[in-house]
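Dear colleague,

Thank you for sharing your sequence with our group. We've completed the structure prediction you requested, and as agreed, I am returning the results in plain text so they can be pasted directly into your records. Please verify that the sequence below matches your submission; if there's any discrepancy, let me know and we will rerun it promptly.
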Amino acid sequence: MVDYSDIDGPNGTENNMGGTAQIFYIAAVRDILTIQKPVAVPTTLDDYVEITTAHVMKTGKKFTKVYSTMDTGEIDDEMQGDRDARSLKSTFKFRTPGQNSELLGFMTQAKNDRFIVLVPLADGKLRQLGSEQFYAEMAGKLMTGKNSSGYRGIEGEITCFGPAYLVYTAAIPLAPGV
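Please find the predicted structure tokens below.
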């Protein structure tokens, strides 16, 4: 066990804006050679949640960028389970505009796939959804909107379970693995 440290309130220099950035990153688990995780023996509180080594991709594979409409991305983490068996359920909601065939094909394939997802928060920190043992899954709702108003696009939801919140501090593999 690691000793608790003082948790101070904001001092006026932090960027504590809510929400997520407009680009997030996904990789199908089948495309990752090595899914990294936090250190096995934590010595600080950060060690419980931070992944400091980049995921290793299979040859020719990389993380894919996905656009989300401004002010639609949010992650909700909720504790669940019984008193002696707590876990976390993380849900990332977002919207992506359009209904072209590529986006529809993306969502058609994604509904049956498993992912590791990296979501930049508004302050630049990266939250990771999915892990070596508990993959993230994606579901989407297609919305056409009305002629007079409404959103035309995909309302996506990425969900995962796990024992810890995960923060990814390594480089995102955006170039194909070799």
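Summary note from our side: The chain is about 5% helix and 35% strand.

Kind regards,
the structure core
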